[in-house]
Design goal:
The structure holds 2 protein chains of 2 kinds.
Chain A: H1 2-28, H2 36-48, H3 50-83, H4 85-100, H5 107-114, H6 118-142, H7 146-154, H8 159-195, H9 202-211, H10 215-246
Helix pairs in contact in A: 2-10, 3-4, 3-6, 3-8, 3-9, 4-6, 5-6, 6-8, 8-9, 8-10, 9-10
Chain B: H1 2-25, H2 36-49, H3 53-83, H4 85-98, H5 107-114, H6 119-142, H7 146-154, H8 159-170, H9 172-196, H10 202-211, H11 215-246
Classes of the chains: A mainly alpha, B mainly alpha.
């Protein structure tokens, strides 16, 4: 019953947004904004074209590598800071602050350090995605119920065993939340990177769209990105909620 | 606590010293990065010469405009949505996935519609900030104690009076969390969009310096933005903590 209500809400929302789009289209006209239908038609043409696959592959590759790196580094640092109280207390506020700075301005440094290619995009995705994973893992490790840790001590578990059998299973729901947020931010990072100084990728496609004043291209790519991000994040959110309910 | 502060100072000082050594020994070459003391010197010169004043003023003005819009519209919209159950249920999926969608992807579209002026940048910053504001206002209003609402009913306050005198002040600490996020997002939105495509502002100056390999301008400006956003953020964070402590919530 509850799930149906959720689906109905989502459908109402999508219908509302499409309606809004159509209304704005009718107000500003063809030159400024293509209608939803025209955009969909163009998206069909775009997706089947040869070059699109190349751009999509480039963005997805940067994104995939960045996400794997974010997860590995994030979990490692998160567990370390969760264990080591002094380091955790000292570094956590600093990491929170880094989260709030406009990271786009750091991109030139990455470009100079890594060169104009996929590695700069990967690095940019990682600095976006790694922070929430660290913060959520850290909080999860810290908030593990003391009784679980005591049981571990009684059983004389070594530190790796402690992580494997007690901390990790207890922290899974929280860590998953971190992964979900990290996923979205890594995607945003890899897309943004391609919007500035790049020769390939979906972000580059967007910037070409502006340069050529090809609004249909701009709208289609925006639509694809939004639909992809919203769908994946909805699915992850559902899994996230289920994990938290079990825990 | 002192150990924590010493740790933090050691980390920052260590990082700067490491960069200094790497730059001076030539491990990091001059084209990639300048030594930190040179960056500090250039930053001082740049600010003293006043050539960046225009860009700084432009960026700050746009940020403040977007921020004020996000704050007022966010709180009002939050209060309205809170009263209207059906609308809230419908918008819930939007709020849950909003920050997963790259808002910057709309920037090209805004440029096409509104032209390459200040408006697209302000809109992006506003869009980034307003939802954090709405979500936190809703969150705060959810936690207003029922007894306050009953008091309002006994005193026969109108909905607007209730909001102004009771519910919004009671929700203030949560709203302040929203403000903190909105400030960060407004800053990110303005500088990010200036950086991607614009005709002025600090973000533009950085990207301009990058394309000209002008490290003597690029690095100081990046450091300036880092310092500014860290300073603003820690001031707001401290204020938030004071408010929470006063309410006995921490």
């Amino acid at each position: 019953m509850k799930r149906w209500r959720g689906a109905r809400n989502a459908l109402t929302l999508i219908a509302g947004l499409l309606l809004l789009w159509q209304l704005v289209y009718m107000m500003v006209g063809d030159i400024a904004l293509p209608s939803p239908l025209a955009t969909l038609r163009y998206t069909g043409v775009l997706v089947t074209s040869d070059t699109f696959g190349k751009h999509l592959f480039d963005t997805m590759r940067a994104f995939a590598i960045a996400f794997v790196l974010s997860v590995v580094i994030g979990l490692f640092v998160g567990f370390w800071l969760g264990f080591d109280k002094l380091s955790g207390d000292a570094l956590e506020p600093m990491i929170v602050t880094v989260y709030a700075i406009p990271k786009l301005t750091l991109y030139p440094i990455l470009l100079l350090a890594f060169g104009l290619g996929v590695s700069a995009k990967v690095a940019f995705g990682v600095i976006h995605g790694v922070i929430p994973i660290i913060l959520f893992t850290l909080a999860a490790v810290r908030n593990t119920k003391p009784i679980l840790l005591k049981t571990g001590h009684v059983l004389k578990l070594s530190r790796p065993q402690m992580v494997r059998w007690i901390l990790f299973p207890a922290a899974v729901p929280e860590i998953f939340t971190g992964l979900r947020v990290g996923f979205s931010l890594t995607l945003i990072g890899s897309l943004l990177a391609a919007m500035f100084a790049s020769q390939r990728g979906l972000g580059y496609l967007l910037m070409t769209g502006i340069g050529l004043h090809n609004i249909e291209l701009v709208m289609s790519v925006t639509l694809l990105i939004v639909v992809f991000a919203a769908t994946v994040s909805t699915i992850l959110l559902q899994i996230d909620r289920r994990l938290h309910r079990q825990g | 606590m002192n150990a924590v502060i010493a740790y933090r100072v050691a980390v920052v000082a260590g990082a700067i010293a490491l960069l200094e050594v790497l730059c001076l020994t030539g491990v990091i070459d001059k084209i990639t990065m300048q030594a930190p003391h040179l960056i500090a010197r250039d930053l001082f010169r740049l600010l003293a010469s006043g050539q960046m004043n225009g860009a700084i003023v432009k960026t700050l003005t746009n940020t403040v405009i977007a921020l004020v819009m996000a704050l007022t519209i966010g709180v009002v919209a939050g209060a309205l949505i809170h009263r209207w159950r059906g609308l809230r249920d419908t918008l819930d999926p939007l709020f849950a996935t909003y920050y997963a969608v790259p808002v910057f992807a709309f920037y090209p579209f805004f440029i096409v519609v509104f032209g390459l002026g200040d408006l697209p940048q302000i809109l992006i910053a506003f869009m980034l900030g307003v939802v954090a504001m709405i979500v936190n206002t809703l969150n705060g209003l959810d936690r207003v104690p029922t007894v306050l609402l009953k008091t309002a009913r006994i005193l026969r306050l109108s909905p607007v009076q209730t909001a102004m005198r009771l519910t919004l002040p009671a929700a203030a600490p949560y709203i302040l969390t929203g403000v903190k996020l909105a400030v960060a997002y407004a800053f990110i939105g303005i500088i990010g969009s200036e950086f991607i495509l614009s005709r002025g502002g600090i973000g533009y100056e950085i990207s301009f310096a990058y394309t000209n390999f002008d490290n003597a301008v690029m690095y100081p400006l990046i450091v300036l933005i880092l310092i500014a956003s860290i300073a603003i953020n820690s001031v707001l964070g401290r204020w938030e903590r004071t408010l929470l402590t006063r309410r006995g919530m921490r």
